[in-house]
Amino acid sequence: MTRDSSPPRRGNARLPASLIVPVEDFCDHLSAIRRSPNTIRGYRADLIDLMEHAHSHGNDALSKIGTSQVRGWLADTRLAGASPATMQRHWSAARVFFRWAANEGLIRSDPTAGLASAKTPKRLPATLGVDQARHILDEAVAQARSDESPQGARDAAILEVLYGGGLRVGELCSLDLDDVDRSRQTVTVTGKGDKQRTVPLGAPALRAIDMWLPRREEWVGPGSGRALFLGARGGRIDQRVVRRVVHAHLRAEPDSPDLGPHGLRHAMATHLLEGGADLRTVQDILGHESLATTQIYTHVSTERLRTAFRQAHPRA
Predict the structure, then answer these.
(1) Closest CA to 7 of 48, 30, 49, 167
(2) Strand ranges across the sheet with 180-181
(3) For this structure, is 135 an active site residue?
C-alpha cells in the first residue's frame, strides 16, 4: 500500500547553515520517529520563521538564541494578528525543537524552558445532528443512483465510509480494495505512524461501496493499482477532491455547518456517544493515542443535552 512520505528538505538562502542545518536535522528526526508529513512541514515553516527572526537580530548560531529572542518572536507573531491556535503551534514548535537540540548537545540550555504555553481557548467543534447526517447521506445515495457517471457512486461511498467508520481523510484516501472485509463487515485502516486498526462498517457503507465498485471499473487506468477510491483520471483519489466532495454535500443541507471530512468524523464520534457507546470503544474506532483526545466528544454530547434541556424543560 502506498503511503505518504516525509516532505522534501528545503533550505533558505537567506540564512546561514549554522541556523538551517539544525532545523533540517530536527525534521529528519521527526521523520525517523514517524511524525506526519504535515506536522513536519508545519514545524519546519515555524522554525525557519524563528531562525529568520533570530538572524535579523544579529544571531548566526543556534547557541546564541536566548529566551528573550524566542519571546520576541512570539510577540511579533501576535502583533501580526496570529490566531491563538497559530500562537500555540509556534510555541509548540520552538519548545519541541529546543528540547531536542539540548538533548543532542547542540545547546547548553533550552531557551523555552521558562516560557509559559500560549494557551488556546477550548472550543467545542461544530457538528451535525443525527437527522442531518442521515439526510445528507441518503441524498448522496439517491444522487448516485441517477448519476450517469461514476462520480455519484464514488462520492456517496466516500461520505458513507467517512461517517460510517470515522476515518481521517488521509486514511480514506489510502484505502485499498483488500482493506474491506465484507465477511466481517470491517475495514482495515492505516492511521498516524502507519499504525493499523480494524474499524467496523455498517450496512449502508458496505452497500455504498458495492454500488461504487462496478462504476470504479470505468475509471481504472495504469495508475489505479489497488486503490479503493479513484479520481476521474484513474489515479488514487486526492485529499483535496475528498474535501470538495464533503463541502459540496454539506452545503446543500439546510442549516448544516460547513464542515470538511473531519467534521463527519466528529459527528460519528458524537453520535456514537449519544447512542450509548463507551469512551474506550470510540477511542479504538478513531485511533486516538490518548483517551483525553476522545473526551472532547463527551463535552459535545453533554452540551447538546444541556441545550435540549434549556429549550424544552419548563423549569430549566
Answers:
(1) 30
(2) 180-181, 186-190, 196-200
(3) no
Same domain, 250 and 161: yes
115, 105 contact by CB (below 8 A): no
Q: pLDDT tens string for the chain (316 positions)?
A: 444 444 434 445 578 888 999 999 999 999 988 888 888 999 999 999 999 998 888 888 898 898 888 988 988 888 888 887 788 888 889 999 999 999 999 998 898 887 766 554 455 556 788 888 899 999 999 989 888 899 999 999 999 999 999 999 999 999 999 999 999 999 999 988 788 999 999 999 999 999 999 999 999 999 999 999 999 999 999 999 999 999 999 888 877 777 888 888 888 888 888 888 878 888 888 888 777 766 666 665 555 555 554 665 555 4
Does residue 57 carry a catalytic annotation? no
Which entry of 78, 95, 262, 304 is annotated as an active-site residue?
Answer: 262
Catalytic residue among 192, 197, 247, 304: 192
- Residue 89 is among the residues annotated as catalytic for this protein: no
* Given 90, 265, 266, 271, the catalytic residue: 265
- Answer yes or no: 168 catalytic: yes
Dihedral over Cα of 33, 199, 201, 292: its sign: negative
> What is d(CA 99, CA 107) in angstroms, rounded to the nearest whole number?
9
Pick the catalytic residue: 168, 215, 236, 266? 168
Catalytic-residue membership of 262: yes
Is residue 271 one of the residues assigned to a domain?
Answer: no
Domain final residue, candidates 241, 265, 289 = 265
Q: Does 4 reside within a domain?
A: no
Query: Position 23: which residue type?
Result: V
Amino acid, res. 32 = A
